[in-house]
Amino acid sequence: MKIHLLLVGKTTNRELDTLISDYQDRLRHYVNLEMVVIPELRNTKSLSESQQKQREGELILQTVPAQADMVLLDEHGAEFRSLELAQWLQKKLASGRDLWLVVGGPYGFSEAVYERANGKLSISRLTFSHQMIRLLVVEQLYRAMTILRGENYHHE
Questions:
Q1: Which end of the chain is more exposed for a tag (fewer CB within 10 A), N or C?
Q2: 23 near 137, Cβ under 8 Å?
Q3: CATH says 2-148 is which class?
């Protein structure tokens, strides 16, 4: 079983990229995590928000295998405390299916992506940049894995 973190656009902030890489390295001890980047759309000034979401959605759906468990990181998704996220992740890992966590573009997801998704997960009710949410996701994955292993990282 593998976890894929699908992102629209590269991480452009070097400091965030360094921190993300640190947590990716830490996660290697627990689970196979792959970062998959879909290039940002070019020449978007002539496109409406809806058109951008549709084009990004097509790229997302072309990338995620049909049999994979696809969960969208979405502000309207389920909210968990860290212990609950660890339990949720444990169930996902036990299913044996690859898990695809998807961070959309600046305007969110197309209807086709919502229809294909197996669920939605919210990291917070606060709004974060798409650059920053990447760090929060990998840190929370690491935290969840240490909780599942009973290691000293999370303090409740």
A1: C
A2: no
A3: alpha beta
